[in-house]
Amino acid sequence: MRIGIIRYFSLSPTCFKLDIKSYARQFNNGSPQTIYNKLIDEKLLKKDPKQVITVSVFDELHRRLNGYQITPSKTKGFFGKLFGGGESTKAKMQGLYVHGNVGTGKTMLMDMFYHCVNVNRKKRVHFNSFMLDVHSRIHRVKKTMKPGETKRFDPILPVAIELSQEHSLLCLDEFQVTDIADAMILKHLFAGLFGEGVVLIATSNRPPDDLYKGGLQRSNFVPFITQLKSNCDVLNLDSPKDYRMDGIASDQVYHLTTKAGTEEMMEKIFIEQAADRADVPVSDVKEECMKLRVLGRDIVVRRCFGRVAIFTFDELCSQPVGAVDYLEICKHFDVVLLTNIPQMNIFKKTEARRFIILIDTLYDGKVGLIMSAASPIHQLFVKPSKRDKQLVLQSESIILDDLKIKQDDESLDLNVFSGEEEEFAFERAQSRLNEMQSKEFWQEHKQLRNSK
User: Fold this and answer.
1) Are 352 and 415 within 8 A, CB to CB?
2) How far apart are CA 282 and CA 289, in angstroms?
3) pLDDT tens across 166-209, in order?
């Protein structure tokens, strides 16, 4: 029987998203293999050779982790570990790191595993949200320290122990490292997590050896890659097909600013969406301004009504905002309109990064997105020339001087100057934007909102 199906994955001629959690509930003691085979039999998925291999690996992991739990370090032995106590004697359980192209089913297969595996203390979360939580916990630990104590021990280990007390199994979606602060934290954090016996399952668009590729002070990050590969089996799911491209594009949610009347069209859509979500006549829609409180500061939403808000690109991507702000927006609004998106290049790396994080956050939050932009999606990020890289290198040479890095052609390959990380991340964002345009996505969106 076809149960709990909403659009995500491969069914020609349209594309469906599977509510894996609801579907898995229909099977007592089901396994990833059982669910995957059933979906194939019901023609809700197409059989993909790469997915078949990945499912079998998840199935074996599902068997090995049945009933898995760890006994994390107690507070009593805490300071012994902080100041160089003995090594952990916990039995090691291997995790899994699945990487591959965008839209090939990594997240879906991990979710099949997650909702089947019999582990009481488990968590499934997007990597960006996970790191926001880690930073928040580190900040909290630092606030409890007395002056001068921060020099005596690393506040990251207490966070690792705290997380291990909450989770025996950690499933992280879209594992990526673009931020130097995250890069420096991960080695210490996961040394603690792995030492406590926490099992990591991760999906990523990059193989482990390419994580933080071209990043500043990457040599300090490389030991984490060794650590990751030592504690997780690595599997490549590079199916040649991006199944998100199977959706039928809707011409009502992406508008080019080069066309006459686009600004008026976006205003009209804002009013109509606001009226529809609030179930009131269009004439009753009156713009409001509201403030969202995040970490002791305010995000100003200048134009909204009910569960619909409209922002300019500059408001969300050219200002000092980030993932935690976008998560708060997702909590308050079902539909977001984003206007005047420009073409981005290496000279707008910061804005590009914020834009990519915004898309990831809205996508994961199932928020409807309507946009007006200067170019088609596949042209939003312009690949830099060597001359562009040289100009950025000249303008930001103080970074190299501070880090005592020689300015030469090899310096152009550093992420801060090359734009490679943004270009790579834009491939994932493009895939998600294509899916978010489809009629099927908006049908799912409507069903989800109506069920609230």
Assistant:
1) no
2) 18
3) 999 999 999 988 778 888 899 899 999 999 999 999 999 889 99
